[in-house]
Each structure stands twice: as structure tokens, then as C-alpha cells.
Amino acid sequence: MARLLFSPASPYSAKVRMAATWLGLPIEAETVNTNDEPALLVGNNPLGKIPTLILDDGTALFDSRAIMQELDRMSGRKLFPRNTRKRMEAERLEALGDGIADCLLAQVYEKRFRPAEKVHQPWLDLQARKVARGLDWLNENPPRVTTRLHGGQFAVAAMIGYLDLRFADMNWRRGRPKLKRFEDRFAKTFEDYATLRPQG
Ligand SMILES: N[C@@H](CCC(=O)N[C@@H](CS)C(=O)NCC(=O)O)C(=O)O
Q1: Ligand 1 pocket check for 48: Cβ under 6 Å
Q2: Domain range annotation of the chain
Q3: Geometric angle at alpha carbon 67, from 62 and 73, rounded to 5°
Q4: With CB atoms counted within 10 Å of each terminal CB, which end of the chain scores lower, N or C?
Q5: Strand 60-61 to 2-6 pairing
Q6: What local confidence, expressed as pLDDT, does residue 11 receive?
Q7: Residues 143-171 pLDDT 10s
Q8: Angle at 197 between CA 77 and CA 189, to 5 degrees
């Protein structure tokens, strides 16, 4: 069985785990701590990042978007739309969800890994502006939720979960009712969201 190295707080891992569950793919998830640089992780992914998927034949796959493409193949093309235009939009949505997560993570790491006196506030502010613009864009262009979920929606839902986990003070729902509606509809359609979203 394929093995997924992950951490419960990681938005990219949550995206992949949610998609695999939605598709009913048999994947064994194993928690790793990236800070420890465990041999299992760095031996399979020189970047030492999660998620990393180890396939049955031992091939290791990363990053999360490459894993999503593999899940799409494993599921018989059920994770992304077949229609070219719709697929492009789903891939762009995934890039935006992941990209906002990148900006959130950059802020978390700036504070976590730098001594307090070296934290560069203009860098944090720059990342926060990207996040705000990304969320506003999503509110203006809310992903439609139907009975067929795709990779883009999982990325946005995972990013929202990470916002709630690490940036609760931001109150991102304020002034973004259409994005909140997406969240509500997604949670109704994919009930495992409650347990698979990023957790502390
Ligand atoms: N673009 C990558 C980002 C993965 C990533 O940055 N994961 C974080 C955890 S959320 C990580 O592994 N951090 C540890 C590190 O950068 O050393 C993806 O989509 O998989």
C-alpha cells in the first residue's frame, strides 16, 4: 500500500489526505516531524518536506501538486475535470490555495525559526497582503461546489483550515461571505473535512 508521510497541521498534507479519502484510495498515512529530519523522510525526499508519497514500488513522489496528479491517475482521472478549460481553472485554484498557504507558512516560519530581534516585519506584512488579496480574489470568484469535488477545492479548504488553526485572530470570514459559503458547502459535501482539516 502507498504510504503518505505527513503532519496533521500541514495544509498541503491535509489537501492530499482529503483528496485520497474522497477518492477512496488505499493510502497509509504516517506522521513525521520535519524538524527532526527523519531518515524515512529525507531518504525519500531530499527537501525533507511533507507531504511525501511513497508508492508501492518504492518510488517517492513530491510535492503535493505532483501527488495530486498521481491521485488523479490512481483514481482513473476522478480528481480533476476532463474538460480542458475546467481543468485549467481547477489547477489554477489549487495553485492559489497552495500559494496562500505558502504565504501563511512564510509568516509562521519567520517567527518560528528567527530570533525575535531578527524577525523582519516588512516581510511579514508583504506576505499578509498577498494572503488578503488571495482571499479577496476567492471571495469574488468563489469555487462552485457540486457533488464532484476537484483538486482546487481541496486546496482551498485545506488552506482555510490552516488559517483557522494558525491565524484565528485574522477572522478571515469577516467581509468574505461568498468564501464562507464555499466553506459551508464544501464541509457539507465532504463530511470528513471536520477530521482531516489541518489540526494542531
Ligand atoms: N510546495 C510544497 C510545500 C510543502 C511544505 O512546505 N511543507 C511544509 C509543511 S506544511 C514542510 O514540509 N516544511 C518543512 C520544511 O520546509 O523543512 C508542497 O506543495 O508539497
Answers
A1: yes
A2: 2-74, 84-196
A3: 140
A4: C
A5: unpaired
A6: 99
A7: 999 999 999 999 999 999 999 999 999 99
A8: 55
What ligand 1 atom has the least distance to the C-alpha of 49? 12
Ligand 1 pocket test: which of 4, 12, 65, 154 has the largest number of ligand atoms within 8 Å of its C-beta? 12
Which residue type, as a one-letter code, is found at position 13? S
Per-residue DSSP letter, 61: E
Q: Which CATH number fits domain 84-196: 3.40.190.10, 3.40.220.10, 1.20.1050.10, 1.10.8.50?
A: 1.20.1050.10
- Per the structure block, which three cell numbers stand in for 64? 503535493
Model confidence pLDDT, tens digit, residues 58-90 = 999 999 999 999 999 999 999 999 999 999 999
User: How far, in Å, is the centroid of ligand 1 from the Cα of 63?
Assistant: 8
C-beta separation of 12 from 67 below 8 A:
no
CATH number of the domain located at residue range(s) 2-74 in this protein = 3.40.30.10
